[in-house]
Amino acid sequence: MLVVAACGGTTSGGGAKTTAAVAIVPGGPHPYFEPMRQAIVDAKADFSLSKGTFEVPSDWKQDLQNQLLTSLAAKGYDGFGIFPTDGNAANGIVSQLAAKNYPVIAVGGCVQEPTKTTFCIATDVANSAYTGAKAAIQAMGGKGVLLHGTGLLTDPNTVLRVDAVKKAVAETNGAVTLITITDIDKDAQTADTAINQALATHKDITGIVTSAYNPTVAAAKALRTLGDKKIKMVGIDDDPVVLAAVKDGFLIGTMGQNPYGQAYIAAYAINQIHQGCKKKGGDPYFIDSGTLLISPEKVATYKDDFKTLTKSIVSGFKDKYLSC
Amino acid sequence: MTGGALLRQVALLALLIVTAGFWIYFSVAASGFTSDFNLFSLLRFAAIQITIGFAQMVALSIGDLNLAVGAIGGATGMIAGWAMQVLGLPPLVAVVFALAAGMLLGFGNGLLITWTRINSFIVTLATASLITGAMLIVTHADPFSRLPDSFTSFSETEVASLPVSNLVLVMLAVGVALFFLYRNLSLGREMLAVGANRRAARMSGLSVDRVVLLTHGISGALAATAGLMAISADHTASPSLGSDWLLASFVAPAIGGTLLSGGLVSVPGTILGGVLLATISNGLLLVGIDNFWITVFLGVVLLLAVVLDRVTRAAGGAVP
Amino acid sequence: MSAEPNPRTLEVRLEVSGIRKQFPGVVALDNVSFRLRAGEIHALLGENGAGKSTLIKILTGVYQPDEGEIRLDGTPVRFASPRAALAAGISVVHQERNLIPQFTVAENILLERIPTRGVQLVDHAAINRLARPWMDMVGVEAAPATPVAELSVAQMQLVEIAKALSLQAHILLMDEPTAAITPHEVGYLFRILGELRRRNVAIVFVSHKLEEVFELCDRVTVLRDGRNAASDVEMATINRDRLVTYMIGRAEVIAKLPPKPPAGEAVLEVAGLTTKGGDGALSLVLRRGEVLGLYGLVGAGRSNLAKTLVGEIKATGGEVRVRGAVTHIASFREALEKYRFGYVSEDRKEEGLILLHSVRANTSITIWRRLRLLGQWIARSIEDAAILPSLRELDVRSHSLSQSVGTLSGGNQQKVSIAKWLAAKADILIIDEPTVGIDIKTKNALHELIWDLAAKGKSILLISSDMPEVIRLSDRILVMRNHAIVGELPNDHQYDEMSEAIMARLS
Amino acid sequence: MLRLRGLVPGVALGLLLIDLVGMIVLSAVRPQFLSDYNLFVTGRDLSILLLVALAQMIVLSLGQMNLSIGSIGGLVAIIESGLMVRFGVPVPVALVAGLLLGIACGVVNGLLVYWTKINSFVLTLGTSYVFAGINLGITHATPFYHIPNEVSSFGQARFGPIPFMAAVTIVLTLLLAGFLYQVVLGRQLLAVGGNSVAARLSGLPIRRATLTAHAISGFLAAVAGTMLMAQLGQGQPTIGATWVLPSFAGPIIGGAALSGGSAPVLGTVLAMVLISLIDDGLVLVSADPFWVEFLIGALILGAVVLGRTHLGDVRVFLRISTARPVGSIR
Which pLDDT score is estimated for A210? Predict the structure, then answer.
């Protein structure tokens, strides 16, 4: 019934299994995913994968990701690392793939539970936002007005981020006032206008934390344009514009994520599962891929830090999460 | 039933041949195209797209547009999710509930159009924002992702061990119903008459406002149907559902030969149009075309289809 | 317009020979010739469908002839577009309203040659200044900067004439310019045309009104069925009867129809009806089995009255009784379903038929609600059975019931638009201009058919601006003018007497 | 002399009042509204979206639509930034090439509509897929970073509260209004939109009018895309992706008829000002973001219903009171 008859990935026991063909599929075009391209190349070499590919849907539409995954399955790929285009609606294609015994691992962002994805290897978004907010508040001297710019209302992570920042602010016992603007990650234009308007209308802002890509880039550019180093900002991700702003001191730092590691670990895990391993019952579904504040001094080295972290997660992975 | 029947058959046949041609080509050129998994996914995707197209086609049949197709589909999908997950209603009840809601939203469009006499384009442009906005206000964009298995597995069940989802059957059932609506039901005939010549229809004793109202109700119910199909396939009622349906809703009817000005629809054409699009985007991926270029192909197919349809029609020779 | 020395030369300016124009399924013009001299007003006559409009469209570059030659001042020419014809000095007042509603009167008049400053900049002041004299000439009293949309229909018609005059064309084609204006306005227009003739302009005058033709024109060409029935005849050498014979081909067209039973009881009584559209207190009585003719010029309010009766236009006062009972009809649907009214619109293409759809759908549209089984289902066999008798009774010719109405001939189209009311068993028929755009043979057949319907007991209100038609068909004639009924005449079907009597009421 | 009659219909008057009230209320409730930087940011957004709305208006005036405005804007921005970043083409050359490309895209739309006589909605839907597809194919949705400084600094340049970009938009808006009211081809274009049959019979150049309207639409979309690229400082492939709604909302609220013949430049400007005020106001009062979508829908519906019914009645009233007797002849 299945086309890809070569890989009856379900057979347990240690038989002589071929290595897996692994595809990493992001949710749509986004600079965040670019390190994954190299990760799958490295993983293919390191784990002798039979095939490895990185395919980006041309737009952030669940239908496009579904089509791409379907066609990759038809082309003979054995397992998939996906960033869900829509954290909820991706469950449809995940179930379909899982029903045909394709292992699917969420990378970079989780699929809403209940889900048939085996793992979610991603940043702990709440922790990242909390850490970023804390860093910003600290730089603000523990008081002032903090602006939080974040992502789409339709993204479940947005709520987690908003709550995490709220929590960090609450811990100041009223010394910090929070202004939250959401739903501005649609595109660069929306984010740019909204951030600038917020800066313009709330003159008393002394700190910024952003927990989505477009608002971060927009705020970093705005601070540079204004030439304002009094406003303490922590962003997210490592867009060149943002890194440059960190280096030049317009940002205290940016919350680095580990997309390279996410894809690399996922490729490893898929290959293991394909060769007969199973997820250990009761083990955590979520695997934190690590997060760290990229401060000016770390701009040059943070990538190595993440690689080291990645290797350590991989080396303990089999024992910790799998039974083979 | 309408004029130029022969030419329309020719155009339909041409569409069928082109679609079949692509199937044969991809079967040969793209390994994996004919795999069960691929066909199942392709047809299920097409079924949902076609149903979205039907919702638009119905509005087009009276010469109106329904830009709120996606908004209604998304909102009713959320309503169904809420009914099943929060209220714990049985799927069947939730489905009826969502269909009724879709029809009511459609009636809302129809009422605004008939009351204000404002162009349907403008009315539904506005109500699309109103409906989506109201949905976001009420749900705060919280998805419903714990839908009953019986509901989600419906879309995954294969019909008679063929690579055909139940959703394809739903789409075909809707198609057959629409076919007979336009062919044999008084309402459908009235819709076409209103679409082709509103004034003459009224002056022949038809109640145009009633037809407009019912048409938008049906369009709303069909959008809801598409929404239900999508949440079954997605396993989740997501607040972003329907946000990208607007333009897609026109493509299948337009390729299938439905006139935007009204009075002429083609149910088989819409089905073929939807299948053709799904086939091309799937097949091109399989033969290794960079998926970023596929949008260009889809645009070209749409343009060629409408131009060819026009040429076939013109070949019949219009009397000046 | 100032008096100038008379430069009339009567040289032949435009010569058309052997023109043939074919449309799918119909030969519109066949070997037609036409000659036009400077300084003459040349009548172009023919029944509706004889080919006048096609000839005019060929002369103005809208259509290109399949065969034949057009010579302008002796040189063969071919007008590829309306623009080319305009450039050659041929200007036309079309039947269709030919104005841009959002533009001002002055801009519409000067639309083809907007005065400019510099390279391409519009000189609005100059537009208003230059348009003024032409507006004054035809009596448009609005300011030049008034948007056309704010004018009345009659004023728009005048603007169109002003526009054509202003083009200072050597050749002016007037396509029924008097159809929508009052006799008073017609008199004024004729003075203008006379003046233009003195200035050596060549004018083609298309009209249905022979009185006007005899009053105004120097020569006449008559088309019948797409051919020349008469070519370039001097008006002085021809009398009215001859002209009519040229146009209709057979003298018996005005012949009496067979007798029919006397009219029965009153089925429709209108007393003191007034409408928003400005109709004065209108009263009439329509009896069973009679044809009541309602004669008036376009714009006299005839269609207004008809549409009020069927609920399209709201009545503001007065009383309408149908079969004795006072009624307030609010819609076409009510008019049909409750009172068995049928309305055959003068505008077949826009109001009467759905050209895109089949003969079947067009005929059964009035009875879908009645044919429904189980709530909605329409069985095709029952549907066809319900409409075929009506189509047969009217002798509708089509390949099949599925043929689209748009591909039928005008006569067959008109029959379908009547058949749908017969299918619905309407017995009060309001028939508005039934033979516009229909060839002479079919016209005769339609006349007999309407007469026959009355003989079978239908009550028919016949609205027409075609005097022979009204006189031939009506039992009584109501004359309408300026939204008022100005006379009721018993009809003895004698053309000359009756037409005189009607004209007397009109002026 | 500009004729005010065509420029200030009742709809524009109503919008002007609402705009003024909105500005007064906003500056009273949130004085920061009047801060230089807020006005700059809001004005910059308005400068771009107004061009988008005008790009739609010019096609609507012909009785047609252009769904490909956003795709043209995005494609132009990508081509320009690509030329500058990848191929080191001098800035003026790249910008001119981009604007010409925008015009070319418009001409393609116009030719398709003119040749095939197919509904412009479907045709431009098709071309929007093509233009957006080319954009995606070239970029793989990755932006071109580091566009030359003179371009990105233009995006940030301002004179007090006034963005430099506003100058471009103001000049183009005036040129467009001037073209439509003062230039022969502009008048002919409106005539074709007002009554295409009459225009044809009068021998007006219909093809040229159609091509011109679509070319202008493409040009304005291209300028909008270019300015957004300058504002963002990079060639973002997503430029234009969200333009469909504002492109229609502006002209429709401003009083354009979908059937053509009207080109309410002033109404469109005032409508876009209103939309900008609302966007800014929602940020200023930190409104619940979930309400934004709903409010925009309500605004469109409300404005159109008011414009078409209430204000429409006023105009009918005026027409009746100024009606003259039917052409009496002296």
Answer: 94
pLDDT tens digits, B25-35 = 999 988 889 88
CA angle A128, A133, A137 (to 5 degrees): 150
- Please state whether at least 3 CB pairs lie below 8 Å between chains C and A: no
- Give the domains, in start order, of chain D with CATH numbers: 2-322 (1.10.3470.10)
Q: Which residues of C touch B190 (CB under 8 A)?
A: 365, 368
Q: Which residues fall within 8 angstroms of residue D236, CB to CB, at 6 or more apart?
A: A187, A188, A189, D74, D77, D143, D228, D229
* Partners of residue C505 on adjacent β-strands: none
Choose among D82, D215, D241, D52: nearest CA to D151: D82
Q: Is B252 on the interface with D (CB under 8 A)?
A: no
Residues C484, C492: Cα–Cα separation, whole Å: 23
A58 and B236 within 8 Å at the Cβ level: the answer is no
Q: Is D319 on the interface with C (CB under 8 A)?
A: yes
Domains in chain A (CATH in brackets) are 21-123+258-290+300-323 (3.40.50.2300), 125-256 (3.40.50.2300)
Least confident of A60-69, B89-98, B218-227, D215-224: A60-69
Q: How confident is the model at residue C318 (pLDDT cuts 50, 70, 90)?
A: confident
Q: Do B306 and D126 touch (CB under 8 A)?
A: yes
Instruction: Decide if D50 contacts D227 (C-beta within 8 A).
Output: no
Burial class (CB in 10 A: 0-12, 13-18, 19+), B160: exposed
Contact D239, D247 (CB under 8 A): no
Compute, in degrees rounded to 10, the torsion defined by CA atoms B150, B151, B152, B156.
Answer: 70
Which two three-digit tokens encode residue A243? 């890194």
Tens of pLDDT, residues D167-195: 999 999 999 999 998 898 999 999 999 88
Instruction: State how far the Cα of A252 lies from the Cα of A140, in Å rounded to an integer.
Output: 10
**pTM of the predicted protein model:** 0.85
Q: Is the peptide bond before D143 cis (omega within 30 degrees of 0)?
A: no
Backbone dihedral angles phi then psi of residue C73, each to the nearest 5 degrees: 50, 40
Architecture field, domain B3-315: Orthogonal Bundle (1.10)
For residue D297, give the nearest of A251, B137, C76 by alpha carbon.
Answer: B137
Nearest to B206 among C333, C350, C355 (CB): C333
Query: Which chain B residue has the Cα nearest residue D140?
Result: B292
- Enumerate the β-bridge partners of residue A145: A177, A205
Does pLDDT of B102 surpass 90? yes
Q: Nearest C-alpha of chain A: how many angstroms from B179?
A: 27
By CA distance, what is D284's nearest residue in A?
Answer: A201
Rounded to a whole number of angstroms, the distance from the CA of A191 to the nearest CA of chain D is: 10
Search chain D and give the residue with CA nearest C86. Answer: D203
Strand order in the sheet with C266-275: C282-287, C266-275, C315-322, C325-327
* Rounded distance between C-alpha atoms, residue C470 and residue C254, angstroms: 10
Per-residue pLDDT tens over the stretch A106-130: 998 888 878 888 899 988 888 999 9
pLDDT digits (tens, 9 = 90+) for B260-301: 888 889 999 999 999 999 999 899 999 888 888 988 998 999
Q: Flag whether pLDDT at B318 surpasses 70.
A: no
Segment C391-410, tens digit of pLDDT: 988 888 888 888 888 888 77
Please calculate the CA angle B19-B25-B31 and round it to the nearest 5 degrees: 120
Task: Give the pLDDT confidence score for residue C76 in this predicted structure.
Answer: 92
Q: Which of D142, D143, D138, D113 is nearest to D125 (CA)?
A: D113
Burial of C275 (0-12, 13-18, 19+ CB in 10 A): buried
Contacts of A87 in chain B (CB under 8 A): 143
Q: How far is C352 from chain D (nearest CA, A)?
A: 22
Question: Using an 8 Å Cβ cutoff, are C94 and C175 in contact?
Answer: yes
